[in-house]
Design brief:
Elements: H1 19-22, H2 28-55, H3 60-70, H4 88-98, H5 105-115, H6 119-124, H7 127-138, E1 144-147, E2 163-167, E3 170-181, E4 188-194, E5 206-212, E6 218-220, E7 234-245, H8 256-292, E8 294-295, E9 298-299, H9 304-332, H10 338-363, H11 365-368, H12 373-380, H13 391-406
Parallel strand pairs: 1-4
Antiparallel strand pairs: 2-3, 3-7, 4-5, 6-7, 8-9
């Protein structure tokens, strides 16, 4: 592989951020978790990434069990259900380190379970639901999915059409969900459904429901052929008269849209955190390549244009990291961080495109080869501007928040 993996630096002095900055939100327990996770990734995951990427799948139950034993899914979950009981900064510390996996697919898959399908369940779920779904998900014994988007409703969550009609003590679910990460291997899904008809606001007629995926009437498509994130199994889910107890509704019926918006905020922040290390690695490896690549009697790194391009990328990445840490600090202090989250998510999406494109350009033909990690990053991280709310939705959120502040 042209884009060679290099030894990771000590977590006590993380790439791209001074220890003083990191200690603003992390303590010794955060660093201990990162070091343990780094060791697991180096020994058990990265040696297999090439094979898993080629096969278009990876053994989620095997990986999740190792992650569960380490506490990756436990970060800010209740101790009484196997969680660590820490604040959201532990989730961010884990997300940052999970970025050291040699592809984007596995970090995305893991973060679905830790910060997308389980936050509402952990905060609002009944004792029964948390025993049935949360506890084994924290331990890594179950694999979960988040099922919100539909073929016609991506960023516009209010437009979903999947219904859950009451029948005695059950819900009868009909509809389909699209772009379901972990969908081929998942044991259960946190599904957003319409539990009442149009007489209510589209923001008040939805509920989140825990749905076991081995039930009669649940069908999974063959894995979708994606541009990137190759080893992550992504499917379409179909629900045909699927019967689920009403007791599987998370929290209050009709509050699903609100719960999901909160989950989106966490998802967006961990997405930013996951992107920091691989983008920093793209820059660092490109600097090393440019230093060694001769051209016209000098090296690529002697060219002022290359120097300035890489300097600008470094500055923008550091600004994004700082924005994330500001949002996390505010989130941990109970502030509304919707605008800061949208800003962070917008920035990482745009920056992922810029870093991978400009670094690939410096690598030239070597970067265009599929056996080069820079080309994988180019494919994998393009999704950052689309998933968890596209760039345009992030700008809408920022604008709406600005308008409220002016009123």
């Amino acid at each position: 592989m042209a884009f060679l993996a290099r030894k990771a630096p000590s977590l006590a002095a993380p790439i791209g951020a001074s220890p003083a900055v990191k200690h603003m939100i992390y303590d010794d327990q955060h660093f201990a978790m990162q070091n343990s996770l780094a060791k697991l990734i180096k020994e058990k995951i990265n040696p297999n990434v090439e094979q898993w990427e080629k096969s278009g799948n990876y053994p989620a139950h095997y990986v999740f069990k190792m992650m569960g034993q380490l506490g990756v899914f436990a970060a800010n979950k209740p101790p009484e259900f196997g969680g660590l009981g820490r604040d959201f900064s532990m989730s961010i510390a884990i997300a940052e380190q999970i970025g050291s996996v040699d592809c984007g697919a596995i970090p995305m898959s893991v973060m679905v379970q830790s910060d997308m399908s389980t936050p509402a369940l952990a905060q609002f779920g009944s004792q029964f639901l948390r025993d049935r779904f949360l506890r084994p998900s924290i331990s890594g014994d179950l694999v979960s999915s988040i099922a919100v988007s539909e073929p016609h409703a991506g960023s516009d969550v209010s437009a979903i059409r999947t219904t859950a009609r009451k029948s005695g003590s059950d819900l009868i679910i009909n509809g389909s969900k699209m772009w379901i990460t972990n969908g081929e291997q998942a044991d259960w899904a946190c599904v957003l459904v319409n539990t009442s008809s149009g007489e209510k606001s589209l923001h008040k007629n939805k509920s989140l429901v825990c749905v076991p995926l081995n039930l009669k009437g649940v069908h999974r498509s063959t894995p979708l052929d994606k541009m990137g994130m190759k080893s992550s199994d992504t499917v379409q889910l179909f629900f045909e008269d699927v019967r689920v107890p009403i007791s599987h509704i998370i929290g209050e019926e009709g509050r699903g849209f609100t719960y999901q918006m909160a989950q989106f905020n966490d998802e967006r922040l961990v997405t930013v955190a996951v992107g920091l290390l691989p983008l920093q690695r793209c820059i660092n490896e490109t600097i090393q390549y440019a230093r060694e690549r001769p051209i016209f009697g000098k090296t690529l790194l002697d060219q002022q244009y290359v120097q300035f391009r890489l300097a600008e990328l470094e500055a923008e990445l550091e600004a994004t990291r700082s924005l994330l840490y500001r949002a996390v600090l505010a989130r941990c202090q109970g502030e509304d961080v919707s605008m800061l989250t949208a800003m962070s998510k917008l920035k990482i999406g745009r920056l992922a495109r810029k870093v991978t494109d400009q670094c690939l350009q410096i690598w030239g033909g070597a970067g265009y080869l599929n056996n080069n990690r820079i080309s994988r990053a180019f494919r994998d991280f393009r999704i950052f501007s689309i998933g968890a709310g596209c760039d345009e939705v992030m700008m809408q959120i920022i604008h709406k928040t600005q308008q409220k502040r002016r009123c």
